[in-house]
Design a protein that fits this description.
The protein is α/β, with parallel strands linked by helices. The protein has one domain: Response regulator (Rossmann fold). Helix content is about 40%, strand content about 20%. Strand 1, helix 1 and strand 2 form a beta-alpha-beta unit.
Length: about 130
């Protein structure tokens, strides 16, 4: 049986974290990192260009933040399953992120094994027509 590798876009303004997440996901075997972005504008451009199945999205970025990215994606025909990673999450912010269209909202610092498993679970929720 051939394992399907899920295409992922990583969006975070921290280059070191993007590199670490890239290495983690590539080594896992279930994912293929197709691109990374340092800000929301670049993320939207790459979503259109690469059509990733999954997007790991930071909330706090200069310029367009993660919530704005989610707002821009709302209503589009093809939207990646979005997992938000944030350094700080309270319940109100978590609810706001999920209401904006994210599939999962996780705090940075989560165990990496747990992160990859939760990403794989989120990817499995993707419906065939490509919508959330």
């Amino acid at each position: 049986m051939v394992m399907v590798r899920r295409q992922v876009l990583i969006v975070d303004d921290n280059a070191q974290l993007r590199h670490l997440l890239h290495a983690l996901l590539q080594s896992d075997g279930r994912f293929e990192v197709v691109g990374d972005a340092a800000d929301g504008g670049e993320a939207l451009r790459l979503v259109d260009e690469l059509e990733p199945e999954l997007m790991l999205l930071d909330l706090s970025m200069p310029g367009m933040d993660g919530l704005e990215v989610l707002g821009q994606l709302a209503g589009r025909d093809r939207v990646p399953v979005t997992v938000v990673l944030s350094g700080y999450l309270d319940e109100a912010l978590r609810e706001q992120v999920l209401a904006a269209g994210a599939t999962l909202c996780l705090e940075k610092g989560l165990d990496f094994t747990d992160l990859t498993d939760r990403l794989a679970t989120a990817a499995a929720r993707r419906v065939p027509n490509g919508s959330r």
